[in-house]
Amino acid sequence: MKKGKFKVVRDERLCDQCGGCISQCANKVHYQDQDQIKIRHQHCVNCQRCVEFCHCNALSIIKEENVFHPHPLWSQQIIEEISKQANSGGILLSSMGTQQSYPIYFDHLLLNASQVTNPSIDPLREPIETTTFLGKRTHDVKRSQEGKLEIEEYPSLKLNTPILFSAMSFGSISFNAHQALLEAAKELGIYYNCGEGGLLEAFYKDQDSIIVQVASGRFGIDPSYLNHSAAVEIKIGQGAKPGIGGHLPSIKNKGLVSKTRRIKEYSESISPAPHHDIYSIEDLKQLVDSLKEATHHQKPIIVKVAAVHNIAAICSGIARSGADIIYIDGFKGGTGAAPTRIRDHVGIPIELALASVDETLRKEGIRENVSLIAAGGIRHSADVVKAIALGADAVAIGTAALIALGCHLCSDCMSGTCNWGIATQEESLCRRLNAKKGAQQLVNLIQAWTREIQEMMGGMGINAIESLRGNRLMLRGIHLSAEELDILGVKHAGR
Amino acid sequence: MKIDATNKTTQQINHYLSQNEECEVHHLLGQRYLGNALTKGHYIFYGYPGNVLGGFLDGAEIELYGNAQEACGNTMSSGRLVIHGHCGDALAYGMRGGEIYVDGNCGSRCGVHMKQYHHLHSVLVIGGSAGDFLGEYNAGGTILVLNQFHKALPFGRFCGAGAHGGTIYFRLDNVSNDPRFRQVDPEQLQKINQLIDRFAYYMKRDPMHLKEGIFYQLEIPQINPYEGLYVKN
Q: Most buried of A62, A323, A341, B165, CB within 10 angstroms?
């Protein structure tokens, strides 16, 4: 198609022709033609970089005005996608979470508040506990022959607030982005996840705030990597692309990326769809146990899976595999790159998956054997509270964290020319992200969310996050079918 | 130092191994995860350890007189495993460096996603034959299948499927016309002979008869298997 999705509008009355837009745009949308700055509209991905950096306030980006013949079935997007595939024969690839308009169940759930019968708590006056422990819980109380309590303790993660940063590999996002996430996690008393691209050696000293990942590509993994962590996460699947592996193109695999992944420079960095040593729950148990053995039984093991149709049965199996924490990633989760059709059509929403898993684990009497982390579309503190009330112990955020760092969600991560210095490895672009400032923005965001969570909990008359976990009485549904309410385990509003 | 593994758990044996850099372990029977993540030492095992022998190994040497089970040498970084017996499935998965020598046969999905990086170059030498999916997704390293038991083809289906790096050599008794196979050149033969010498040294036998026959290399496209597969939406 000749035209792109966006159009850059320059107000010539305000523009002083400084050329700032030319230097800011890595997509070469703005260019100098003799004494005039011209625009290649079709290159624009709507990252808003030029708009934000135009000191004359002369730029704005609008949707391309050119419209195709309106058709209820054959939308403009469908026509454009068919055209792309007809010209290339390629599988369509997209970045970030799905843009399809599936229901957002969090928006159909309403929270409770105390009125008269149960006094609400003012978080400014009374402490409201948000500290969360993730891992297997001790539920057998035994006494020795002398009558002393014998408590078997399991390795766990302690979070000051029930939020973690989700896994994003070094390669998919920049060094500065990783540093910002790690510094923020340290300050907040939560965890940074290095993703499957290995752990930067510069971060080893902060191992108490780091979760390391073991994915099917096994990049950067050795005993030192495994032990420079607070927990080890086995990545089976990702919400945005369940059943699909990963691939960092050879062009991005150079310098520090290659060193961190410990693979040859400019070789393809491919994570196969399955772990070829895991074909069953028994095999998963084997990897869980061997990782525990390799880390001297000091670290909790997380198993991350995408939310798919039989997620409750799958998580029941994972809980029995000896994993300490299950991370469920809903299908609205973000990605650096995923086949469009997989991203938009495979998996289920986190709200339904979470409610179903929590209920199944409770029914089977194994809920206390594992903690649940919910992810994939957590946008604000109310989503966090709703997820915890549906059964999560904590949530993980990826896209929201990137937005806090400056991402404008242009969804062009795969091109590697992120103008905000996040999803890129180009040195000149990476420098645009100030890790210290980014860390502060992340700290601000999570602190603000924590205060909001405390306010909502206080309103419900709950003073500890533990009492909110799985407390579905605090939720009511609206605009939901009986089947949906049944799965979510909540009553309709008014009942 | 000698350890009797009878009635001992994995954790007990692994504790001994971490405390003693040289020791023999006798009467192993089914204990899994032995030698996981060991960084130094030389150990000789007798018996039949369970799955994931030498997983995440990073420098230690383990010699086993017996058969190894599944996932032996899983995600190994460096060190050496010498198996005087057969191996189960998923041998050397995600191996980045070090050497594994197996006297007998091994199961399916062996040498999957092997890699190399700088001085680390993974080496897997299988004395007998391998099952399906040998060297699948390979990104680096070397696999040599010596076909001691003279099978017509020393591996099963889908050998090297999805591989985009590394080398798979194997020995045949007769000339093959399979278009996927290429007879090795003198330089490659020299490398193979060096590997055979090492294999014979560890297996304590004469290398000469292992060098007879015709050596082939499996054609692995050293390119991005996803090249041209995707288009930006």
A: A323
Q: With contact defined as beta carbons under 8 Å apart, do B192 and B184 qualify?
A: yes
Q: How many CB atoms lie within 10 A of CB A308?
A: 17
Neighbouring residues of B119: CB distance < 8 A, sequence distance ≥ 6: B97
Least confident of A90-99, A144-153, A290-299, A318-327: A144-153
A245 close to B (CB below 8 A)? no
| Type of residue at B207 | P
CA–CA gap between residue B21 and residue B41 (Å, rounded): 4
Q: In a 3-state reduction of DSSP, which class is residue A282?
A: helix
Sketch out chain B's domains with CATH numbers: 86-218 (2.160.20.60)
Distance CA(B57)–CA(B36), nearest Å, equals: 6
The pLDDT value recorded for residue A219 is 94
Q: DSSP string covering B148-161, please?
A: TT--SSSS-TTTTT
* Confidence bin at B223 (pLDDT 50/70/90): low
Q: How do the domains of chain A map onto residue ranges?
A: 6-90, 132-492
Closest CA of chain A from B165, distance in Å = 8
Cβ of A92 under 8 Å from any chain B Cβ? yes
Question: Is 70 exceeded by the pLDDT of residue B107?
Answer: yes
Confidence category of residue A152, pLDDT binned at 50, 70, 90: confident
Kind plus residue range of the DSSP H or E element containing A413? none
The architecture in CATH of the region A132-492 reads Alpha-Beta Barrel (3.20)
- Nearest alpha-carbon partner for B210 in B140, B138, B128, B153: B128
B230–A218: do the CB atoms touch at under 8 Å?
no
Instruction: Give me the CATH code for the A6-90 domain, please.
Output: 3.30.70.20
* Confidence (pTM): 0.95
Give yes or no for residue B227 having a pLDDT over 80: no
Dihedral-angle region of residue B59 (phi above 0 means left; psi in -120 to 50 means alpha; beta otherwise): left
Alpha carbon of B193: minimum distance to chain A alpha carbons (Å): 25
